[in-house]
């Protein structure tokens, strides 16, 4: 079966000074959706990874070898992602990364383990990725549903007091774990009071969202928890706007990206609250030099601002580079050792690869979408998010006890295998 594997190797870079002509390139495999409902997030990952590879090659590569980026279209389908891992592994990649769906990241990571290869999760928010389904080959660069829900609760709990919530949740791993975490931290576990409905995944239709939103309206809820992602979120918000629900309910979208905001549009996004692990405003609000340099390089290269998807892929390439240089090796076991408990500062404040579960411990940001006119007046019309709160990673992340309970609930060892 023909694979949709695209080589994004950079012609001419092999001739850079410092590279021996016979130097074998180090291949990195990006498993991302270039088609389907999450394609905007996938494109951002490809751009972030490509920018990192270009920069690294311009500075001499990794271990004095050039870097080659291989990509494969997952189309946000787990079985396709698994096939991609097999083919990328056969082409000799030294590590794999990607996501945009937790089901994809989990399946692809499990396949990577069979090939003794690291898998870095980009957009994979389900708690299971580094919890119930975690293993030693999986490192999650972004936050998880638990962290996002805890940050949202820190901002919303006072305003949610005595409010009735309704959940519209995508029917797959990320949706389930996000709803569970949100209910726990917002004290809305009573489904008799705070009801909800699951929507089809993948490929929900307008009619699915219309039916779910009619149930939300009939419930008399004050707050709509819209647990949707990518183009699905944009579709649901457009239907909510058409039904006039934005004037009746506060709308919360737990995980936001710039690509999602662009897809929905500034008018429809106005006032929507959610969380991000990073957005291009963060380094300017908090004066993070590395983040500002990334934003400016990305805008110059692609004439658009980077989203958290782009930042995640960009950071992963650099984290792999640094782990390889610390260990002076591409051996997977040595790379794992070099990553575990490693702390670093790159695009924002300090982050750490926690050894216990390979979750990246990092700050979470609660944001609200700006008024439409403010977005339209901004550079490139992409200043969507107003930062409302920053929750430090140590406060947001699962405790060791919480993680152990999740592992024990599915009969998994407390040591990653």
From TrEMBL:
Keyword Cell inner membrane found: no
Stretch forming the signal peptide: 1-22
Residues passing through the membrane, by range: none
InterPro entries: BCAA_transport (IPR051010), Leu-bd (IPR028081), Peripla_BP_I (IPR028082)
Recorded superkingdom: Bacteria
Domain called Leucine-binding protein: residue spans: 25-370
Keywords carried by this UniProt record: Signal
Membership in a protein family: Belongs to the leucine-binding protein family.
Protein name per its UniProtKB record: ABC transporter substrate-binding protein
The organism of origin for this protein: Thalassolituus marinus
């Amino acid at each position: 079966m023909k694979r949709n594997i695209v080589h994004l190797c950079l012609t001419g870079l092999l001739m850079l000074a410092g590279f021996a002509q016979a130097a074998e390139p180090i291949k990195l495999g990006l498993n991302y959706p270039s088609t389907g409902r999450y394609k905007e997030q996938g494109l951002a990952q490809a751009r972030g990874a490509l920018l990192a590879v270009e920069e690294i090659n311009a500075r001499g590569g990794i271990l004095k070898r050039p870097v080659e980026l291989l990509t494969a279209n997952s189309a946000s389908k787990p079985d396709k992602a698994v096939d991609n891992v097999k083919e990328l592994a056969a082409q000799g990649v030294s590590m794999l990364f990607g996501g945009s769906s937790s089901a994809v990241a989990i399946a692809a990571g499990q396949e990577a383990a069979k090939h003794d290869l690291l898998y870095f999760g980009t957009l994979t928010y389900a708690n299971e990725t580094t919890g119930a389904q975690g293993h030693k080959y999986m490192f999650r660069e972004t936050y998880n549903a638990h962290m996002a829900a805890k940050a949202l609760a820190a901002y919303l709990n006072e305003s949610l007091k005595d409010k009735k919530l309704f959940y519209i949740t995508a029917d797959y791993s990320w949706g389930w774990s996000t709803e569970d975490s949100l209910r726990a931290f917002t004290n809305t576990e009573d489904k008799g009071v705070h009801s909800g409905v699951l929507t089809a995944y993948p490929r929900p239709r307008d009619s699915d969202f219309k039916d779910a939103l009619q149930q939300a309206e009939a419930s008399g809820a004050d707050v709509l928890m819209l647990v949707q992602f990518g183009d699905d979120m944009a579709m649901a918000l457009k239907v909510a706007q058409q039904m006039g629900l934005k004037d009746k309910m506060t709308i919360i979208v737990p995980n936001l990206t710039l690509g999602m905001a662009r897809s929905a549009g500034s008018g429809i996004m106005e006032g929507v609250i959610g969380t991000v692990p990073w957005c291009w405003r963060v380094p300017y609000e908090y004066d993070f030099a590395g983040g500002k340099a990334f934003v400016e390089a990305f805008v110059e290269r692609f004439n658009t601002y980077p989203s958290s998807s782009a930042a995640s892929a960009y950071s992963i390439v650099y984290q792999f580079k640094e782990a390889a240089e610390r260990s002076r090796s591409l051996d997977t076991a040595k790379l794992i050792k070099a990553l575990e408990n490693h702390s670093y500062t790159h695009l924002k404040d300090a982050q750490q690869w926690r050894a216990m579960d390979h979750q990246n411990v990092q700050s979470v940001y609660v944001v609200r979408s700006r008024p439409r006119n403010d977005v339209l007046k901004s550079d490139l019309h992409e200043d969507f998010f107003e930062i409302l709160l920053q929750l430090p990673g140590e406060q947001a992340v699962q405790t060791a006890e919480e993680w152990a309970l999740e592992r024990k609930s599915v009969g998994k060892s407390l040591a990653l295998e």
